[in-house]
Amino acid sequence: MSSSSQEELLDEVKRLGERIRSADKHLPADFYEVLQALEEEGEYEQTFSITIEGEEITLRLNIRAKDKKRPSSWQVALKFHNKRVDCIDYEPGLGWHQHGWNRETLAEKEKTSLPEMTNKMSDRYQATLENWLRLALSLMKITTRRLRT
Questions:
Q1: What are the pLDDT digits (tens) for 88-140?
Q2: CB-based contacts of 82: which residues, under 8 Å, 6+ apart?
Q3: What share of the chain is helix, strand, coil (3-state, %, to 5)?
């Protein structure tokens, strides 16, 4: 891909990133199928489309949960043209957080703490993959069949 094509894609990410983040997104999958894939394979990936201002946008959702016994290793990222536009993960010292949005740094630098998720994932009875997935998708405004925000 030429550098001018890459620049055009990056410009499109910068132009639409905030709108993608704030839009309601529907993943054309059943919540329990996603959960089962995570439990069996430790990861889930799906491309899907949404419409923003009459323009069809193709997104990719990546979810990682390789170590089922360590919630701090779990991550969910939403990508547009292979660039993160939204992400929820854990970092020591910061805890659970959602990546913020900035047109220049995209979703790479700014981070907002998620106290609700930190509290839930600190409680050994609530720190389940299912609870984490429900909350993460809800915070990212992503619904599935059998899961509405």
A1: 999 999 999 999 888 787 777 889 999 999 999 999 899 999 999 999 999 99
A2: 60
A3: 35, 40, 25
Torsion sign across C-alpha atoms 136, 78, 72, 111: negative
> Residues 109, 91, 66, 74: is their CA dihedral positive or negative?
negative
Q: Is 55 exposed, middle or buried (0-12, 13-18, 19+ CB in 10 A)?
A: exposed
3-state secondary structure of 21: helix
pTM over 0.85: yes
- Position 1 scores a pLDDT of 57
Q: Is the distance from CB of 105 to CB of 41 less than 8 angstroms?
A: no
Q: In terms of C-beta density within 10 A (0-12 exposed, 13-18 middle, 19 or more buried), how is residue 125 classed? A: exposed
Give how far Cα 58 sits from Cα of 12, 97, 102, Å: 12, 25, 20
Report the DSSP pairing between strands 142-145 and 25-30. Answer: parallel
Sign of the dihedral through C-alpha 118, 121, 122, 125: positive
